[in-house]
Amino acid sequence: MMIVPNSSFYLCFLDDIRSPHYLAKILNHESFDFVTGGKILEEVKKSSRYQLVQGKVDRRVRIFNYINYGEILRPLFSVEEIERGEHEVVAISCILYILGSNFLAIIDDDQARKFLKRIFPEIECKVTGTVGFVEECYRCRIFSKEETISILESIRNSKFRVKKEIVEDAIKRVRER
Taking Cα atoms as reference points, which of 30, 45, 64 lies closest to residue 140? Predict the structure, then answer.
């Protein structure tokens, strides 16, 4: 399955919860094929901890840079949004959907998620957030129950922008499995 995460996914592990080893473990999983855009990678490289996962990123994350996504989406996004990586996840997701690819987009920004769901409601089931993807990693046995709960608790207690209820619900679901 192709995974198309926004920079906030990577930065959650690198900066917010300071657990790059968990990100490396996710990137190493053979079932996932990570795809990203240049703008997203640019944002991730700004992290002071990027060098801790750079080798994994270089080996396991493909750059999807066939076109300038900002130009395609210019009428649909504000200038500030185009300068951030959200438009790349939206564009890559739309292209993968049209091509019939099996993918999952990780988008934590509410506006970008709502936009993608409004433009392509068929994609709604192919969009999750970082917390939802951590749960997916538990289902795929990348993380043990204890690791998953620890990651989710770290996210809950960090500066990562996610509603506490979303994290609490995820912790509850993992505990019940």
Answer: 30
Closest CA to 38 of 96, 104, 89: 89
pLDDT digits (tens, 9 = 90+) for 109-151: 888 888 888 878 999 899 999 999 999 999 999 999 999 999 9
pTM, entire model: 0.89
How confident is the model over 18-32, as pLDDT tens digits? 999 999 999 999 999
Question: What count of other Cβ atoms lies within 10 Å of the Cβ of residue 96?
Answer: 20
- Separation CA 141–CA 135 (nearest Å): 10
Q: Which two tokens stand for residue 32?
A: 């996932």
Mean pLDDT lowest among 33-47, 49-63, 68-82, 130-144: 68-82
Three-state SS for the chain is: CEEEECHHHHHHHHHHCCCHHHHHHHHHCCCCEEEECHHHHHHHHCCCCHHHCHHHHHHHEEECCCCCHHHHHCCCCCHHHHHCCHHHHHHHHHHHHHCCCCEEEECCCHHHHHHHHHHCHHHHHHEECHHHHHHHHHHCCCCCHHHHHHHHHHHHCCCCCCCHHHHHHHHHHHHHC
